[in-house]
Amino acid sequence: LLSEQTEQENGKKRETDKRDELFDKIKQLKEQTEVEPSRNVATEASRQKLAEAGIRFVPFYKAVAFDDALTEKECSRLESQMEALGILDALIVSEEDRSRVKKQFPEYADLMLNVTGVKLISDNSVGFEDNGTKKNTSKNPEESSRQTFGLKVNEELSESLKKETLKILAGMQVSGDLFRLDSDGSFRHGILEGRMDKEEAASFVGELARKRRKEQLLNEMQTEYEDVRQRLEDINAQLQVIDSRLQLLEQEYKALPGFEGLDAAIDELRRCRVETVQAEETLRDQEKRTRTQEEKKNQAYQKMLQCCRALPYGRTRKDYETAEESMRDYEHCWHE
């Protein structure tokens, strides 16, 4: 029972820690405006420093949105491709702030998107410098990018970040075979290529997707929280049963004869053994004396038979009593 109790107590501690951890995560998620991709501590610290310094930046997944013509499956596949390439949560920094980051924060631990050589000629065209010569690649870079990758610029961005995003999308388009996001899930970025797909819906690109992902995570965590809570109730019930059984055993143990009673019983047993030995010795002495007296009686009887053989009396008790009475009468007469 004690071993089982220890095991249940350890299980209770594990489940309690898990419950408390889930409670904190649920509380933290509820306080967040929307969900964000998982980041390491160094990246979080870098972004906090950039924000405190007034650096204007936005993660790529917040800078773009899916084209309305894409299906849910196509959106999910495209997001998984960008995540695999490492550009989904990479930062877009305005051109004027990008140089500040490198100068003021050389130790920053993060990813930034920067398309070298792409210039925004006007609001409707993008230029790409090839060997020092500027070339127009599109009169409508946003439309061209949308047709290629199914992405468009988030219109809620500031003008500087919107222009930088346009340049990045256009730069992806004019990179030729060095950068691909194909509809079958395959991709290439420089020397890196592969294929990615996922079953669940997109989680980060688009405000609606982030809200949906937040609700999904909350539901999953709350379901897990309820499962942990139920397991804790089961463990507490088992511990109550064990505690009741231990209390019963303790009561039964207390009802057993104590050591003081046992010592008294042992002392009484020893005393009885001593008295028994003494009684046996006394009995042997009495038996010995009895045998001695029997031998003396037999000797006296034989002597009496020899002495009284000539007398006219029998050998019974009554005859001896009669003879004794006659002797007294004779003695009485003699004294007179």
Mean pLDDT across the residues is: 84
Oligomer: single chain
Strand content: 5-15%
**Number of DSSP strand runs:** 10
Number of helices: 10
Rg (C-alpha, Å): 56 Å
The residue ranges in which pLDDT falls below 50 over 5 or more consecutive positions are: 122-139, 141-148
Q: Give me the strand/helix succession.
A: HHEHEHEHEEEHEHEEEHHH
Q: What class do helices, strands and sheet pairing give?
A: mainly alpha
Helix content: 55-70%
The strand line-up of the biggest sheet is 4-5-6
Report on this model:
This protein is mostly helical and 336 residues long. The protein is 63% helix and 12% strand. It contains 10 helices and 10 strands. It has helices at residues 2-31, 41-52, 60-63, 72-85, 95-104, 141-149, 159-174, 207-255, 259-307, 317-335, and strands at 57-59, 64-66, 91-93, 118-122, 125-130, 133-138, 151-153, 179-181, 186-189, 192-195. The chain has a 3-stranded antiparallel sheet, with helices on one face. A 3-stranded antiparallel sheet has the order 8-9-10, covered by helices on one side. A two-stranded antiparallel sheet has the order 1-3. A hairpin with a 4-residue loop joins strand 8 and strand 9 (186-189). Helix 1 packs antiparallel against helix 8 and helix 6 (141-149) crosses helix 7 (159-174). The longest helix is centred in the C-terminal third of the chain and has 49 residues, at 207-255. It is rod-shaped and about 180 Å long. The chain starts with a helix and ends with a helix. 19% of the residues are buried. Residues 122-139 and 141-148 have low confidence and may be disordered.
